[in-house]
């Protein structure tokens, strides 16, 4: 069985920590480098439910995309929710390792996994300088509504679901995708000249301006859902390493939805009197989903 330090060395080769953004906090949060590793769990968020899942699974290593601590702390006391995670992990001999912006910029990385989940053909990076996001082609043109429906069907279900901005009937051939918050990438998306952009955490003003400026279609999925496919990609990568090195690791992907949004209501109410709306792609009957 490999030591934690040997497994981490392989993970660092997949996602070199020096490629993380300067503000980021990647790497090993807790764990004994000499401890043996037999079972590994991948998840997006290092939250208490995931720590508990790692313990119940008998995992020796939890690898998450999001950092537990992004800024410095002076306490890991269990009275604080983050300290509770640290206590749960250490008391049960579970190491925690984070691959965040170094996994975003890796090849293959978070956006490759997102494109793969959607069945898209990647033709190159959206931002070549730091390898962020991906430009993709569809096998055949489809409407923006069908493209969004594809995302809703192929990404794991969340309360948020998938939102669309722009004409749902517009034709989509080339798209940009970026896992996680993508609204800092609008300039690159416009420069790429794609028909649609799929990402997460899009806000009113950038979306309003983007759709006023050009017929770009926008597809906004839950942050967690756009990054979860990376867990499957990462687990497959570690499985392959384990086979190659004869480690016989047991590698798992958490299916727990840790997107913080827990319900979504779409009222059947009509817009304010006299108001009209651009062509609507609403298909939800209004029940929380
Ligand atoms: Zn994220």
TrEMBL record:
<dbReference type="GO" id="GO:0046872">
    <property type="term" value="F:metal ion binding"/>
</dbReference>
<feature type="binding site">
    <location>
        <position position="223"/>
    </location>
    <ligand>
        <name>a divalent metal cation</name>
    </ligand>
</feature>
<comment type="subunit">
    <text>Homohexamer.</text>
</comment>
<feature type="binding site">
    <location>
        <position position="66"/>
    </location>
    <ligand>
        <name>a divalent metal cation</name>
    </ligand>
</feature>
<keyword id="KW-0479">Metal-binding</keyword>
<protein>
    <recommendedName>
        <fullName>GTP cyclohydrolase 1 type 2 homolog</fullName>
    </recommendedName>
</protein>
<feature type="region of interest" description="Disordered">
    <location>
        <begin position="266"/>
        <end position="289"/>
    </location>
</feature>
<feature type="binding site">
    <location>
        <position position="227"/>
    </location>
    <ligand>
        <name>a divalent metal cation</name>
    </ligand>
</feature>
<dbReference type="InterPro" id="IPR002678">
    <property type="entry name" value="DUF34/NIF3"/>
</dbReference>
<dbReference type="GO" id="GO:0005737">
    <property type="term" value="C:cytoplasm"/>
</dbReference>
<comment type="similarity">
    <text>Belongs to the GTP cyclohydrolase I type 2/NIF3 family.</text>
</comment>
<dbReference type="InterPro" id="IPR036069">
    <property type="entry name" value="DUF34/NIF3_sf"/>
</dbReference>
<feature type="binding site">
    <location>
        <position position="104"/>
    </location>
    <ligand>
        <name>a divalent metal cation</name>
    </ligand>
</feature>
<feature type="binding site">
    <location>
        <position position="65"/>
    </location>
    <ligand>
        <name>a divalent metal cation</name>
    </ligand>
</feature>
<dbReference type="Pfam" id="PF01784">
    <property type="entry name" value="DUF34_NIF3"/>
</dbReference>
């Amino acid at each position: 069985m490999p030591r934690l330090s040997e497994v981490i060395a392989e993970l660092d080769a997949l996602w070199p920590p020096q490629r993380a953004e300067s503000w980021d906090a990647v790497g090993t949060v807790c764990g004994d480098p000499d401890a043996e590793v037999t079972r590994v769990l991948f998840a997006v968020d290092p939250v208490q439910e995931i720590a508990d899942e790692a313990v119940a699974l008998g995992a020796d290593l939890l690898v998450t995309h999001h950092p537990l601590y992004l800024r410095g702390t002076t306490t890991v006391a269990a009275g604080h929710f983050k300290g509770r995670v640290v206590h749960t992990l250490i008391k049960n001999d579970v190491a925690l390792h984070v691959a965040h912006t170094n996994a975003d910029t890796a090849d293959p990385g978070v956006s490759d996994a997102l494109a793969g989940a959607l069945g898209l053909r990647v033709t190159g990076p959206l931002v070549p300088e730091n390898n962020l996001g991906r430009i993709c082609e569809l096998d055949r043109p489809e409407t923006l509504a069908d493209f969004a429906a594809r995302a809703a069907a192929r990404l794991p279900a969340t309360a948020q679901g998938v939102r669309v901005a722009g004409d749902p009937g517009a034709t989509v051939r080339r798209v940009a995708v970026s896992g996680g918050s993508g609204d800092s990438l609008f300039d690159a998306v416009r420069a790429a000249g794609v028909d649609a952009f799929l990402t997460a955490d899009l806000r009113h003003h950038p979306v309003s301006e983007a759709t006023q400026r050009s017929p770009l279609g926008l597809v906004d999925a839950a942050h967690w859902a756009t990054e979860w496919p990376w867990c499957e990609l990462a687990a497959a990568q570690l499985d392959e390493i384990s086979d190659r090195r004869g480690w016989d690791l047991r590698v798992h992907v958490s299916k727990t939805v840790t997107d913080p949004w827990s319900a979504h209501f779409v009222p059947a109410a009509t817009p304010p009197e006299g108001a009209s709306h651009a062509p609507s792609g609403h298909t939800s009957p209004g029940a929380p989903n």
